[in-house]
Amino acid sequence: GEDVEQSLFLSVREGDSSVINCTYTDSSSTYLYWYKQEPGAGLQLLTYIFSNMDMKQDQRLTVLLNKKDKHLSLRIADTQTGDSAIYFCAEAQRNTPLVFGKGTRLSVIA
Amino acid sequence: GAVVSQHPSWVICKSGTSVKIECRSLDFQATTMFWYRQFPKQSLMLMATSNEGSKATYEQGVEKDKFLINHASLTLSTLTVTSAHPEDSSFYICSARSRGPNTGELFFGEGSRLTVL
Question: Which of A35, A50, A103 comes nearest B104 by C-beta?
Answer without folding.
Answer: A50
